[in-house]
Structure formats: C-alpha cells, structure tokens
C-alpha cells in the first residue's frame, strides 16, 4: 500500500463547484444543493483503499455527529473505474450499502472535480465554511492502518468545531495520507 500525502490546497480557496451523479440515489447533485448551512465537508475516497476502509467508521461517526449541526457531508470517488473496476459506480453503491453510508457518494468519472480540488489521495478531506471558503484540508487524525493509534477524528473534528463555534484552529494542519487517486 503506497502512501500519498494530500497536496494541501491553499486555505481561503473558493469551493470548486460541480454536479455529479450520486451512486446511492442515482440522482445528479451540485455542490450548492449538498452544502451545509454552516459548512461543507468534501471527502475524496474510494472503495478499495485500505486507508479509507480503516477510517470509514470514524467518517460515518463524524457525518452523523455534524450533519445535524449544519455541516454538509459529500463523498466523491474519482478513481479510474476502467483500470480499477472495484471503484466503479456499481461497486460504490455496494460499498455504501455495506457501510451504511447515507450521505451522497458521488462519482467523478471525468476526474475534473478531483483536479479542481487538487485532490491527491484517499481519503482526502476539504472543509469549507458557510461562505464556501476552504477552512481546513488535511488528515482525519494520526491513526493509520496498522500503526496502533486508535481512530478519533481529532484533527477534522477540531476543524469542524472551529467552524461551528466560530473559533480559530490552534494546531497546524497536517496533510492526509492514503492511496493515490487512480488517474486515467
């Protein structure tokens, strides 16, 4: 499993807009339709990455904890489904069912959305404030597959709390680490 770090898109960047098909509902959704009243979390992920599989339970807890507080949760897979069929739309639907993902899991077939976000790895987290300005990009927490550190979502939760409670982030933002996005 090769480690790739996120590219750390500059803070203050406006959220790139998109419209993509949700593999859970088969509807097309735009960023503006899915964003939250207090902020939006865009997660680049895929089905087969061991880093995503390791983190998915904490991602679900975060989604359940913060959607009710006005944070929109949006997951996107941009992997090349021709060379990685396990990351194709049909398998995304199965993955979402298996893990009970009840927020949109969108498929970026053209990979244009991943390029617009400068996404590099899975999982890669982008947190935007209510004005659609990038507030946080980086890791979920210090836990990685097989490193013995338990999942707690500390870094991402701290950033979301800062948005909700109008605080500044005290700690530096560390890049996320995961599998590289599988480019065409």
Query: Strand content of the residues, in percent?
Result: 15-25%
Number of domains: 1
Poorly predicted spans: none
Global mean pLDDT: 95
How is the largest sheet built, in terms of strand order?
3-2-6-5-4-8-9
Shape: globular
Number of helical stretches of at least 4 residues: 5
Distance between the termini: 19 Å
The CATH homologous superfamily? Glutaredoxin
Largest sheet: 7 strands, mixed
Structural class: alpha+beta
Which CATH-level-2 architecture?
Answer: 3-Layer(aba) Sandwich
Estimated helix fraction: 25-40%
Named CATH topology: Glutaredoxin
Q: How many runs of DSSP E, i.e. beta strands?
A: 10
Order of helices and strands: EEEHEHEHEHEEEHE
**How many whole angstroms does the radius of gyration measure?**
15 Å
CATH class: Alpha Beta
Set down the secondary structure blueprint.
Layout lengths: L3 E2 L13 E4 L5 E3 H4 L4 E6 L5 H17 L4 E7 L11 H11 L5 E3 L4 H6 L3 E2 L1 E6 L4 E5 L15 H11 L12 E4 L4
Parallel strand pairs: 4-5, 5-6
Antiparallel strand pairs: 1-10, 2-3, 2-6, 4-8, 7-10, 8-9
């Amino acid at each position: 499993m090769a480690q790739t770090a996120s590219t750390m898109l500059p803070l203050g960047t406006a959220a790139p807009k998109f419209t993509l098909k949700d593999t859970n509902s088969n509807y097309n959704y735009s960023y503006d339709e899915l964003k939250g009243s207090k902020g939006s979390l865009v997660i680049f992920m895929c089905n087969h990455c061991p880093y995503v599989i390791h983190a998915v339970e904490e991602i679900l807890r975060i989604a359940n904890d913060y959607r009710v507080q006005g944070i929109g949760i949006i997951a996107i897979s941009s992997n090349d489904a021709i060379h990685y069929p396990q990351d194709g739309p049909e398998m995304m639907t199965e993955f979402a069912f298996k893990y009970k993902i009840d927020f949109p899991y969108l498929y970026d077939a053209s990979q244009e959305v991943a390029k617009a976000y400068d996404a590099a790895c899975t999982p890669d987290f982008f947190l935007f404030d209510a004005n659609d300005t990038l507030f946080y990009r980086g890791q979920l927490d210090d836990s990685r597959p097989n490193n013995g550190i338990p999942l707690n979502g500390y870094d991402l939760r701290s950033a979301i709390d800062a948005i909700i409670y109008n605080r500044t982030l005290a700690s530096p933002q560390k890049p996320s680490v995961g599998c590289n996005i599988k480019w065409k």
